[in-house]
Amino acid sequence: MKAIKVGLLGIGTVGSGTFNVLRRNQAEIRGRAGRGIEIAMVADLNTERAREIVGDAAVVVSDARAVIANPEIDIVVELIGGYGIAKTLVMEAIAAGKHVVTANKALLAVHGTEIFAAASAKGVIVAFEAAVAGGIPIIKALREGLTANRIEWIAGIINGTTNFILSEMRSKGLDFGVVLKEAQRLGYAEADPTFDIEGVDAAHKATIMSAIAFGIPVQFDKAHVEGITQLQAADIKYAEQLGYRIKLLGLTRRRENGIELRVHPTLVPANRLIANVEGAMNAVVVQGDAVGTTLYYGKGAGSEPTASAVIADLVDITRLHTADPDHRVPHLAFQPDAMNDTPILPMEQVLTSFYLRLIVADEAGVLSRITTILAEHDISIDAVLQRESAEGEKQTDLIILTHETVEGRMNKALAQMQALPTVLAPIVRLRKEELA
Ligand SMILES: NC(=O)c1ccc[n+]([C@@H]2O[C@H](COP(=O)([O-])OP(=O)(O)OC[C@H]3O[C@@H](n4cnc5c(N)ncnc54)[C@H](O)[C@@H]3O)[C@@H](O)[C@H]2O)c1
Ligand SMILES: N[C@@H](CCO)C(=O)O
Ligand code: NA
Fold this sequence. Notes:
By secondary structure, the protein is an alpha/beta fold. It is 38% helix and 25% strand. The chain is built from 15 helices and 17 strands. Helix 1 crosses helix 13 (303-320), helix 5 (85-95) runs parallel beside helix 6 and helix 8 (160-172) packs across helix 9. The chain starts with a strand and ends with a strand. The mean pLDDT is 96. Nicotinamide-adenine-dinucleotide binds next to helix 1. Sodium ion (NA) binds at residues 129-130, 132-134, 136-139, 309.
């Protein structure tokens, strides 16, 4: 059978990996897909660099629309990134009746509803395994492997750049800026690395997983997004003394009154597997009612690991594109008429436990005033640590771990504690999850 023809839009880090892996493993991939998969056309603004990568194997153009307009092309792979031109091109490819593969989590987390609706109306597939946790087949696992389960929660280290930064800062005592530059050099970071360090990229991915797990639309605007730029070395150290590691987690959890969707630095017990995921590696824990806990670990970024997921989608489409669209796996795991509108909970209603660090005056009665405020708000204390403060002799660092409570309640307690004259600096508040 004739090879299926693919057009690549963008041949940067992921695009070049896709081209190289497809060429290297073409015989095996053909054996699995049932026919060859050929990148016949490549569009990139940098045509010179694109030609260096593909040689004579594909036509290189600078105008992505020329790929979409080519009737020979069956599948368009969007690897440009961002919400701008990438969105226009994906919508145009769908309108032209092409199947689409994309690694663009930003685009799907924000415009997924519109894109999936357009694809369904046109009877084409939009595949996006590379968009969440790169090479880890987590979309496949959530949509197919775990399809029997009522998913309870998902917690993931889903941004390699920030995990790399946190690991290097903790183990080598390196500076934030130095480690960020290295992550950029290694090709992990987004074009705009603020998306990584401010938690936006992880929130894009958590948003997509949340939709698939709970059958709700993608709603990035409802996600709580907090990155690692405010994280202080002292808290990494104290967390360790208390038996925890700090990880930037993407969390989504079913509660009685709605769904939690949040990204923030999180204390995780040091003996959990996920707490020991280091460097740019990703890991996702999924809790299902039947299967229990499952863990998915691997490379979430980089040229060939991400290409691995892009090509898996190409193989899926090659096998499935002649199937009746009603018999394909739905984009968000649930059939469009089986989706629900369970609300995403505001952060005030989220249930979590906390790590607090207060710099307090080293005098009698301070601790009891603070514990009284917590007790008045019905917040129960799990552990307390008192340490000499780096700030000076008359001050002390007071670290408190709490049991689970509603975030809104903690906010009220924090405001009262902050107002005490013996609390000498802004209180550090981090969230803690046992993930059991
Ligand atoms: N790098 C990773 O590890 C990784 C992992 C998972 C997902 N992703 C996602 O994959 C996508 C691509 O990321 P990347 O790291 O390969 O980016 P990149 O910057 O390395 O590559 C993007 C390419 O697109 C080209 N381009 C830009 N505008 C264009 C246009 N209008 N027409 C044609 N070409 C254009 C650029 O010249 C560049 O070669 C992004 O959505 C990113 O979020 C990346
Ligand atoms: N910038 C992302 C790339 C993979 O999506 C990361 O660091 O994980
Ligand atoms: Na993936």
